[in-house]
């Protein structure tokens, strides 16, 4: 068995790797569109079926690791994710892409809550657990975007190589997670209770519910913006900002999520009462800068706005992870984080799908600007909800 520091590292690597798959196809979407001639709406459907499969997994197997243990769920999900990568490599049209996205989405849905719980279980302390578990989505997505952009632009087999590489990595990680000790074994339960747990459901421990519902606007604001970058981001760069290098597209997409890691780190050194507000302020300012960049066609300004917005994404999401990790009982963390990701991926997919429909009618640039404006409004709602939650917590302490 692996010792605790190595277990923590492997858990973090598994968490990051599952999200690497989410962004790997993004730099390839313009290539697929030119090759097979499908519309912007079809593109967002390809993006959305991934999320719907992911939600199906979260609603069924998302919290099953609380009953059967983390290792079998995480390992099985990584093997399934490798299969999804192989389907991408052999895809011959939009139907093949949708099939690959469905398999990929179910695998990521099975893995996300489980790997987050594994990270928290293996962490040396809650602070380290919340930092790593909130940073790994940004790290994984950034690596996927940059790796795919580089391989598409410079390597042979531009539509296949990135997926072969990722498939091999997932199989290695699937083996490694079996060596992570089960830090908090679930209590034995009858076999029937496990099958009943596979029925579609979502839930939260009672003690976690007030914190969770207060954080819903924050979770929605962060992941709605991530959905824009991964669904229409490459099209915005190539069409609105006239970027024609796949590597540059991957870099710009990766910058947003890499900045999320820096936002996570910065939030840890700020005074506790400023961390959440830093995230919201950076999100709002960054999105406003990217709107200005699209209006003026300025790529450097868009890049700067992506950095600021990405830092806000990381800081705000870290605040949510930290609050939920503190509120959730250890034996029900899988359920808590699975429910969190249900909300995250609904925000990730539904606005992006609506944007795909809007592009067909209004065009890409007006849709992207309207999406950004709505994102700023959502950040303001999250800020108001955060202020209310802070006042309520202060009142309870005073009482």
Automatic annotation (TrEMBL):
Lineage of producing organism: Bacteria, Bacillati, Actinomycetota, Actinomycetes, Micromonosporales
Membrane topology label: Multi-pass membrane protein
Principal place of residence: membrane
UniProt protein name: MFS transporter
Naturally occurring in which organism (per UniProt): Winogradskya humida
Residues covered by the Major facilitator superfamily (MFS) profile domain: 1-390
Domain of life: Bacteria
TM helices/strands, residue ranges: 38-61, 73-92, 98-119, 131-155, 161-181, 211-232, 247-270, 277-295, 301-325, 337-357, 369-387
Location relative to the cell: Cell membrane
Annotated signal sequence range: 1-16
Keywords in alphabetical order: Cell membrane, Membrane, Signal, Transmembrane, Transmembrane helix, Transport
Database matches in Pfam families: MFS_1
